[in-house]
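Forwarding these from the shared drive since the link keeps breaking.
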Amino acid sequence: MPWTASLELRRRLAWPLVRAHFAWRGVDWGRRWKLFGRPIIQRHCGRRIALGNGLTLRS
């Protein structure tokens, strides 16, 4: 499917920005994550968010 390739390319190009966003918000990064879009992250001060490996998020 032609649109699948363009979506995958956009996802990979946004990867560094999204990963920096997660780190800034204090989210521990897992392995084999697939993120589509930039998820909204809300965390209470002093708390930590930890998500497992193999996570797929779509915003």
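-- next protein --
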Amino acid sequence: IANTNTTNLAVVAPGIAEALLATGMGLFAAIPSVIFYNYFQTRISAYGARTEGFIAELMNAISRQLDKGA
């Protein structure tokens, strides 16, 4: 643009096309990444909840055993 001193479409179109292509490639990588991140985050959260439930049950069982022995 600076070399030609004009801003007509023929001058700016290649830059716009390149920017659109780069944006499309970025979205092509970003969208699956977000989907997989959400999927794995949900799975990890569910695993954590199951682990917390197991710990609570184990602590209750140990507490009952200690109460019986006392």
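The first helix runs from residue 9 to 69. The CA atoms of residues 13 and 45 lie 47 Å apart.

- D.
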